[in-house]
């Protein structure tokens, strides 16, 4: 996390008035006011410039000072993004924050926060324990690997439940991508790169004011990447079928209608073609596939000010599609048709948001609003000869309507902050008519859930703070779990029926931490404890001579607790050292009466970075250490075979040299020590790789 090490002139000017400080606290976060007062009073330790926490949005759905927000929020800055060797969005997250990931070759990845198993909803029936947002609205992406990284200004990673603000899927935390908004003069860059495995890259970005007067501005960013050769793993062996090509584009248009009202349009597009999927290492070359992936997202927002009210209205929509082609197989009947289209999926999302940020006093504000989301999921399956067959899952949709209010109170000149909020969601799930699928029935079910939250932050002394939160999170049952039925022919037949009385899976998490910021140091240590109940499990409900009857019920649970650390030290004007990590003291779940370790959760994750800036040179060394974790060995028969996956330590380096004010050259090395490792057992990632980039900016 990069911290701003200065206080602007406006904040300094406002520090002499207590009322002004409190107004700053309410409007812009209490940290701004407190830092301003410290600057005026000359209380900064050691003569160093005082620390003003970055402005973040995710914790309150409104701009606030990070240092006065109760939740744990890690911020990944644009500079850190630029200096991180990364193929995809998951790489940026795992190398710059202490999160858990699951990642496969073939551009498929998911994320987990605070001990919740990393999710790839494409494989887990749509369930997500960590929520991904773009500028505060749903990212409308089921796969982190295809999220556009070119448009990112910064990333905010909120630790802990946020269903009181954002609704479902925010049990572990929230990742909010904040996109670029250049409202100044026209600037941009063009970049060309070449790297290991015959990888060619082209990137461009441009943005700024288009027309004056009139207040029209824009941002465009785009990239094209093609890896022509298969990568080598850390053991020196080539991993067949691992080449790919992709392109990303993002466009933003903004118009200042009046001084107080603004219209903003955002659109982004991903297109991946011939993305090679090698399959598990233990299968050799017998389970290879290729896939095409597309994704787009758009939103239109109107923001404005009426007195003490900051208003926002937004509509959004998106679509994600997958086409998977079987390339190799041991099935004899497939051989004449290889490769052939075997599976497709289509996920559509749309919705709207209305929000009011009301500064109703010098010492308090409220953010309240209503939002609605509709997600539709369809999958298609094909025979080897190209004819369609019944898909494995029926078409479904989920509609949610939620209303929330979040209150923030600032006392003692901003030294004491209290947040409390609540949200109610009403959710409807439907199982829809599905062509060719006849072994199930359609249906719909409704349920509602209420989720509160409470947090505080107390400033102690000239730089210390205590903070804590408690909140509830939830994940809704899927449409097949709630309604409909399906029959699988066998001996006996399996008849699976939904249960409309299911409760959402829910969690309660509390955390307590202590932090310190001042001079050239900042640090935080937080303990968290999570209890999960009402996890949904399949159960047998009866049997006769012909059929075995199966349904769902709320029976399983989980307990997670651990310690998070974060620290930064500006050792010199040219050197900044940072450290963050999570140590799990317990990460266990009870499934069907059996207690076990939560799969794919390592005992610890530790991240270290050293950032150097000296003259024309800019360098970054990053190290990531991951402990052992438990997983099912699916290559030997499934969930009954438990194995321990070994931990690993990987390092990367980035070195940029500014030739002049417009030109620069960047060298990056990923997996610097050529470690043979995997984020998911049996799916090792690339070994050491290099890339060289040339950039011209204006």
- Spatial separation of the terminal alpha carbons: 27 Å
Number of domains: 1
Tell me the radius of gyration: 26 Å
* Share of helical residues: under 10%
**Oligomerization status of the protein chains:** single chain
For this structure, the CATH topology is Maltoporin, Chain A
For the secondary structure, the number of strands is: 38
The structural class is mainly beta
pLDDT averaged residue by residue: 89
Please, what is the CATH homologous superfamily? Answer: TonB-dependent receptor, beta-barrel domain
The gross shape turns out to be globular
> Runs with pLDDT <50, length 5+?
1-52
Fold and architecture overview:
By secondary structure, the protein is mainly beta. It has one domain: Maltoporin, Chain A, CATH 2.40.170.20. Helices cover 7% and strands 57% of the residues. It contains seven helices and 38 strands. The strands form five sheets. It has a 22-stranded antiparallel beta barrel. Strand 13 (244-256) and strand 14 form a beta hairpin. The radius of gyration is 26 Å and the shape is globular.
Characteristic key phrases:
disordered N terminus, Maltoporin, Chain A, globular, mainly beta, 698 residues, five-stranded mixed β-sheet
Q: Strands, helices and their partners?
A:
Layout lengths: L8 H5 L4 H11 L1 H12 L13 E2 L7 E2 L6 E5 L1 H5 L6 H8 L3 E5 L3 E5 L17 E5 L2 E2 L13 E8 L3 H4 L6 E7 L7 E9 L3 E13 L4 E12 L16 E13 L4 E17 L11 E18 L2 E18 L13 E22 L2 E19 L5 E2 L6 E16 L4 E16 L8 E2 L1 E18 L3 E12 L3 H4 L2 E4 L4 E5 L7 E14 L2 E23 L3 E26 L2 E17 L2 E4 L6 E11 L2 E10 L2 E4 L9 E4 L2 E11 L4 E8 L18 E9 L1
Parallel strand pairs: 6-9, 26-29
Antiparallel strand pairs: 1-2, 3-8, 4-5, 6-7, 8-9, 10-11, 10-38, 11-12, 12-13, 13-14, 14-15, 15-16, 16-17, 17-18, 18-19, 18-20, 20-21, 21-23, 22-25, 23-24, 24-27, 25-26, 27-28, 28-29, 29-30, 30-31, 30-32, 32-33, 33-36, 34-35, 36-37, 37-38
Helix pairs in contact: 2-3
């Amino acid at each position: 996390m990069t911290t701003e090490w200065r206080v602007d002139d406006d904040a300094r000017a406002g520090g002499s008035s207590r009322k002004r400080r409190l107004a700053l606290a309410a409007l812009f976060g209490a940290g701004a006011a407190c830092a301003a007062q410290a600057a005026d009073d000359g209380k900064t330790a050691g003569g160093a410039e005082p620390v003003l926490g970055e402005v973040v949005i995710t914790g309150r759905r409104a701009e606030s000072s990070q240092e006065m927000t109760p939740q744990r929020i890690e911020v990944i800055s644009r500079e850190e993004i630029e200096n991180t060797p990364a193929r995809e969005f998951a790489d940026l997250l795992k190398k710059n924050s202490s999160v858990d990931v699951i990642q496969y070759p073939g551009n498929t990845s998911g994320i987990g926060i605070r001990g919740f198993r990393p999710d790839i909803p494409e494989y887990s029936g749509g369930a997500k324990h960590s929520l991904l947002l773009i500028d505060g609205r749903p990212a409308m992406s089921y796969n982190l690997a295809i999220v556009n990284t070119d448009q990112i200004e910064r990333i905010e990673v909120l630790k802990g439940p946020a269903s009181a603000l954002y609704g479902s899927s925010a049990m572990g935390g929230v990742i909010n991508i904040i996109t670029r908004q250049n409202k100044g003069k026209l600037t941009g860059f063009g970049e060309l790169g070449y790297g290991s495995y015959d990888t060619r890259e082209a990137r461009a970005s441009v943005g700024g004011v288009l027309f004056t007067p009139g207040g029209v501005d824009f941002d465009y960013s785009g990239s094209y990447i093609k890896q022509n050769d298969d990568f080598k793993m850390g053991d020196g062996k080539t991993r067949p079928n691992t080449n790919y090509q992709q392109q990303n584009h993002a466009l933003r248009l903004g118009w200042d209608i009046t001084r107080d009202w603004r219209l903003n349009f955002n659109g982004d597009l991903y297109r991946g073609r011939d993305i090679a999927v090698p399959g598990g290492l233990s299968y050799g070359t017998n389970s290879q596939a290729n896939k095409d992936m597309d994704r787009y997202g758009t939103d239109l927002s109107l923001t404005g000010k009426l007195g003490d009210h900051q208003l926002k209205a937004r509509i959004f929509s998106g679509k994600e599609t997958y086409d998977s082609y079987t390339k190799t197989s041991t099935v004899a009947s497939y051989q004449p048709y290889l490769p052939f289209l075997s599976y497709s999926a289509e996920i559509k999302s749309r919705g709207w948001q209305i929000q009011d940020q009301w500064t109703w006093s010098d010492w308090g504000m409220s953010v309240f609003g209503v939002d609605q989301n509709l997600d539709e999921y369809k999958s298609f399956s094909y025979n080897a000869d190209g004819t369609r067959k019944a898909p494995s899952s029926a078409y479904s949709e989920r509609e949610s309507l939620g209303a929330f209010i979040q209150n923030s109170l600032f006392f003692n000149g901003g030294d004491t902050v209290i947040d409390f909020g609540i949200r109610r969601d009403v959710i409807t799930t439907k199982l829809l008519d599905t062509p060719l699928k006849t072994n199930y029935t359609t249906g719909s079910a409704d349920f509602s859930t209420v989720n509160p939250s409470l947090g505080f932050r107390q400033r102690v002394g000239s730089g210390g703070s205590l903070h804590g939160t408690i909140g509830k999170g939830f994940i809704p049952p899927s449409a097949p779990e709630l309604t409909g039925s399906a029959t699988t022919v066998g001996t006996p037949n399996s008849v699976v029926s939904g249960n409309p009385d299911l409760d959402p899976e829910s969690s309660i998490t509390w955390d307590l931490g202590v932090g310190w910021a001042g001079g050239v140091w900042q640090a935080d240590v937080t303990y968290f404890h999570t209890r999960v109940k009402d996890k949904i499990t399949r159960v047998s409900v009866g049997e006769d001579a012909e059929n075995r009857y199966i349904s769902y019920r709320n029976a399983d649970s989980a307990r997670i607790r651990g310690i998070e650390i974060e620290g930064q030290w500006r050792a010199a004007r040219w050197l900044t050292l940072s450290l963050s990590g999570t140590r799990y003291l317990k990460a266990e779940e009870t499934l069907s009466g059996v207690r076990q370790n939560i799969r794919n959760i390592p005992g610890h994750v530790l991240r270290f970075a050293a950032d150097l800036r000296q003259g024309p040179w800019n360098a970054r060394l990053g190290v990531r250490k991951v402990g052992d974790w438990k997983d099912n060995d699916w290559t030997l028969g499934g969930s009954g075979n438990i194995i321990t996956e070994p931990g690993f330590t990987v390092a990367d380096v980035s070195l940029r040299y500014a030739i002049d004010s417009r030109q620069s050259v960047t060298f990056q090395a990923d997996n610097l020590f050529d470690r043979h490792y995997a984020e998911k057992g049996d799916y090792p990632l690339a070994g050491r790789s290099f890339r060289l980039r040339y950039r011209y900016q204006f």
